[in-house]
Each structure stands twice: as structure tokens, then as C-alpha cells.
Amino acid sequence: MSVPQNSPSSSGFRIDVCVSIALVAIGGIFAGFGLFHYGVWINRGPGPGFFPLLAGLLTAIPAAISLFDTARGSVTPLVWSSMLPAVGVVAALLLVPVIGMVEAMSLFILVWVRLVEKRSWRDALLSAIGGLVITHLIFSVWLGVYFPDSLVPSIVTLWN
Question: pLDDT at position 129, please?
């Protein structure tokens, strides 16, 4: 007889509880560093700690809610396809040093809209290009915040 994916095994181990606790801890650490170490708001604008605080809270709060739901006994079955967003984000983050942050996120949007949302290539391309342009206009032009660049120009200059 097989044990359901998110029910306690004979040893009492619950992967959903462990993941929720880990996400609350990681989100809390990010939020703490953003708030107390980097500075959230500097000179009437977002500081270097703004994004870590936001990302930490957006990670820790849903994980804490999930943990409390599990403690109350209202458990949603764990489906591995629900891990696709995390896998996609990790893949996009691994591409940041290679092609740049804005480009990696645009590629993530393209693949997500096409493969997960099952929209047309036209919609996927418009979403990705629109995200790239809006991100560039808001951060680079308006706020003057630049994202990590690609290593491709450095690699190309090594070959010349």
C-alpha cells in the first residue's frame, strides 16, 4: 500500500510541513536583511532592501498560511506540477549571469505564457516584449536602477 504524497509516513515526516517551515524561514531572513541591513527607502526612493523585503514577505506569508491550514487539518493534496513555477524561477535565475536579468525574466514570461498558459506565440511574444519594455522604462529610465548584465559580451571579447 502506498502512502499519499502529503500524508504522514510511518515516521511522521511531512514534506509539505517541512517546505512551509523552510519557506517561512527563508522569507523571514530575506525580509529581515532587506528591512534591517540594506535599507528599504533611501532619498525618497526604493533602496537596496526594498526588493528583498517584498520578496521575503511574499514568500513567508503564504507559507505561514499554508502551515496554519495544515495544522488545522485542511490539507490540499500535493501535486508535483504545482512545483513548475519554482522550477521556472530557478531556471530563469540560473540564466541571469548568462543573458542578463531582464532578458532572463522576459524569456521566463515567454515560456510560461506559451507552455503553461497555452496561449499563442503571438500572445507569448507580446507579453515577453511588453514586460521587457515596461521593466526597462520603469527601472532603467524612470528610477535609474540597473539590473545585472549578461556575461555574453565579456565572453565574446575574450574570443576577439
Answer: 96
Instruction: Report pLDDT for 107.
Output: 94
Cell reading at 24 = 517561512
In 1-159, where do the E strands start and end?
Answer: 41-42, 45-46
pLDDT, greater one: 129 or 13: 129
**DSSP per-residue codes, 25-48:** HHHHHHHHIIIIII-SEETTEE-T
Largest CA distance in the chain: 63
**Integer CA distances (angstroms), 67 to 15, 56, 85, in order:** 11, 16, 20
The pLDDT of residue 10 is 46
Task: Compute how many other C-beta atoms are within 10 angstroms of the C-beta atom of residue 22.
Answer: 11
CB 82 within 8 A of CB 62: no
Residue linked to cell 539590473: 147
Domain boundaries defined on the chain: 1-78, 81-160
pLDDT tens digit sequence for 115-139: 888 999 999 999 999 999 998 898 8
Residue indicated by cell numbers 527607502: 41
